[in-house]
């Protein structure tokens, strides 16, 4: 199926960088100049205060995956101005990011700090590390990660706060009603066609390690 077929219900598309810039306008020179090739102290402080980030990587077919990572603030270790490390905590064992990095080391990360309108964007190349000393330094609550994602920083910059402001992301009084949305157990049973109720599925996971945070 061609791109034209996929979007055939619409017309009038932007097809060049020149046309795009005519619509959006060009960025101020300072917006481009703020990109750094290494972490400065402000970037280090932001990462040290961040308990949550999103990691983007590409699979062998070129499609992008975005994976969340979260831990107490400071979980991302800044090893040097151009090297950071993120511990891998127990998850669903898909390890999409790691599989992607094995084929294509290019990676992007965006760091969030609760209540802070700005975010920090980072691009670089990654490797999967099992260095004993590094993993031991990332232990939490007596649990040592089995893997760490080492990222060589190539570009880093602070991102405009407008999207956070518009979304009211840190304003609980403005959050949409969400009680009608299904939880993970319900989604798993329905989407994976599991012959159990959501409650039965949850009970079946107890004691398997699938529910462990660390």
UniProtKB/TrEMBL annotation:
Tell me the domain of life.
Bacteria
The residue ranges of the Pyridoxamine 5'-phosphate oxidase N-terminal domain are 40-159
Q: Which InterPro entries match?
A: Pyridox_Oxase_FMN-dep (IPR024029), Pyridox_Oxase_N (IPR011576), Split_barrel_FMN-bd (IPR012349)
**Which Pfam family, just one, is annotated for this protein?**
PNPOx_N
What the entry lists under PANTHER family is as follows: FAD-BINDING, PUTATIVE (AFU_ORTHOLOGUE AFUA_6G07600)-RELATED (PTHR42815)
Stated name of the protein: Pyridoxamine 5'-phosphate oxidase N-terminal domain-containing protein
């Amino acid at each position: 199926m061609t791109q034209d077929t996929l979007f055939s219900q619409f017309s009038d598309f932007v097809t060049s960088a020149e046309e795009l810039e005519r619509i959006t306008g060009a960025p101020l020179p300072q917006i481009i100049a703020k990109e750094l090739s290494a972490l400065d102290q402000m970037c280090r402080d932001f990462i040290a205060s961040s308990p949550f980030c999103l990691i983007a990587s590409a699979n062998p077919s070129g499609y992008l995956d975005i994976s969340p990572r979260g831990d107490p603030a400071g979980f991302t270790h800044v090893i040097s101005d151009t090297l950071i490390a993120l511990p891998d905590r127990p998850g669903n064992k898909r390890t999409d990011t790691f599989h992607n990095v094995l084929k294509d080391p290019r990676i992007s990360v965006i760091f969030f700090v609760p209540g802070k309108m700005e975010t920090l964007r980072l691009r670089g190349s990654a490797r999967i590390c099992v260095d004993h000393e590094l993993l031991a330094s990332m232990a939490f609550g007596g649990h040592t990660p089995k893997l760490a994602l080492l990222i060589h920083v190539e570009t880093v910059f602070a991102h405009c706060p407008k999207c956070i402001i518009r979304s009211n992301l840190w304003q609980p009084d403005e959050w949409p009603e969400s009680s009608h949305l299904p939880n993970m157990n319900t989604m798993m049973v329905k989407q994976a066609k599991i012959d159990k109720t959501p409650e039965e599925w949850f009970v079946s996971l107890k004691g398997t390690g699938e529910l462990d945070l660390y």
